[in-house]
Amino acid sequence: MGTSLGNYMRETVKQDVRLFLAPLVGAVKGIRQEVDRVQKQNASARKKFGA
Length: 51
Hints:
Blueprint: H1 2-49
């Protein structure tokens, strides 16, 4: 009984952690994409102005 309950708890915690982390991971990915985009814009702006 004890082991099956322990396994159940572990699985439940894993699912909770995934549900909790999914939005955070998505946000981090979005931020990284935004940073890449801004850096590309800055690089092209520098070329235009010859800085």
